[in-house]
Amino acid sequence: MSIFLAEVIGTAILILLGNGVVACVLLAQSKGENSGWIVITFGWGMAVMAGAFAVGQFSGAHLNPAVTIGFAIEGGIEWDQVPEYFAGEFVGAFLGATLVWLAYLDHWKETEDPGLKLACFSTGPAIRNPISNCITEIIGTFVLVFGILAFFANPDTAATGLGALIVGLLVLGIGLSLGGPSGYAINPARDLGPRIMHAILPIAGKGGSDWGYAWVPVVAPLIGGALGALVFNATFP
Question: Which CATH superfamily is domain 3-235 in?
Fold first, then answer.
């Protein structure tokens, strides 16, 4: 399987299950309505695990441009592979977001708040302060990329065959500990891809796609991922 196709499949699974759990919790008349932040963070952790286990053998299952940048800086992939990873990640995000819309098709019109509908596609800050929101996203993505590189620098960890589960639990931890201020995008494709689909799809009663904030969960994770890889290279032999 090509890197592109693997990243499409893995990222589509990630977004379908990750944004799907947000829709389950937020949309009116869902059986999971109001089940809370713990459900969302656990669902996202399992979404990462499922996508990574599905395609890890083919592409390493980056599923995230910030992770791809981190691996390119660390030396795990060549820079000329980055565009193929990015393309697969964004196409997968488009596909996954569309499937979430279809899966909850009857619930969009039952949900009055357009903000809740947007939250099923993209992140938004609890307190809107672009500088603070960027700091949060940089820290969260730094932990993600540095954690992945550091964990698997130990060959015994890699040999377990449980890498996808380990990364899923790391994402769960990031969400529980650092997700409160900004919703922990920590992944440009995860936020921008579904935000674009929110703008395109005929979602009943939707509002705007909050393009004024959209740069934060794209730029900040790329910075955090790059910093995570640079610090890893500087500190690990």
Answer: Glycerol uptake facilitator protein. (1.20.1080.10)
